[in-house]
Amino acid sequence: MLIASLIFGSLICFGVPVGGLIILLRRKRGAGKAFFLGMLAFSVSQLGIRIPVLQLLLPRWVWFHVLQLYPWAYGLFLGLTAGVFEEGARWIAIRFFLKDRTDLEHGLAFGLGHGGVEAMILAGLNMTAGLMMVLTGQGALFPATSQTVLISGLERLYAMAFHVGASLLVMCGIRKKRTAGYLTAAVALHTVMDAAIVILPAVFGAGIAVIELYGAAVGLLTLTAGVLAYCRRK
Length: 234
Prior knowledge:
With 234 residues, the protein is mainly alpha-helical. Helices cover 86% and strands 0% of the residues. Helix 7 (179-204) packs antiparallel against helix 8 (208-233).
C-alpha cells in the first residue's frame, strides 16, 4: 500500500505539471516560457525571499514571537504574506516577461509551472526518495505512512488547481487592464487558503480531514473563478 501511495503521489507531483506542459506545448506557442516563468515566480518569491525572511529575519524581533501567540493574527499574517509575495511575483512575471502571450493556455502553463515546482520541491522529491527506499528494502527508514503520503499527494493536486486559477485571475486582470481588482482577489484567496492551516486547528480544533477539505474547496473555487474570468472576457 505504501508503494502504491508513493507512486500515486510522485505521479501527481511530477506527472501532472509535466504532462500538462506537454499538452499545452502542442496547443500554444509560448507555453514553455510561461511554464518556466511560473516556476521562477514561486522559486524567487517563496524560496528566495519570503521563507528566508520568516525563518531568519523576523525571529529576531519580539513582535513576531508575540504574534505567534494569537492564531487568528498569525494565520492571517502568514496567509497575507504568502499572497502578497506570490501573487506579486505572478504579476511581475506576467506583466513584464510574457506581455502579449496572455491567452488561456499561457495562464494554464504559468499556473502549472508555479504549482508544479512547489509540488516537486515540497513533496515530490521526498516521495521519490521514499519510493527508492522502499524498493531497495529500506522502507522502515521512511517516516511517512501510506495514508499521509496519499493525503500529501491529493493536497498537491488541489494546490496546483489553486495556482492555475490564481494565475488566470492575475493574467486576466492584466489583459483587461483591471489589475487592481483581479490581483486583490488573487491575494485574498491566497490569504484565506494559507491562513486556514494555522487557524482551523488552533482555533476550531479541526483535524486533517477538515483542513484538506477546506483547502480543496478554496482550490477549486479559485480555479473556477480564473476560468470563468476568461470565459467572461471572451
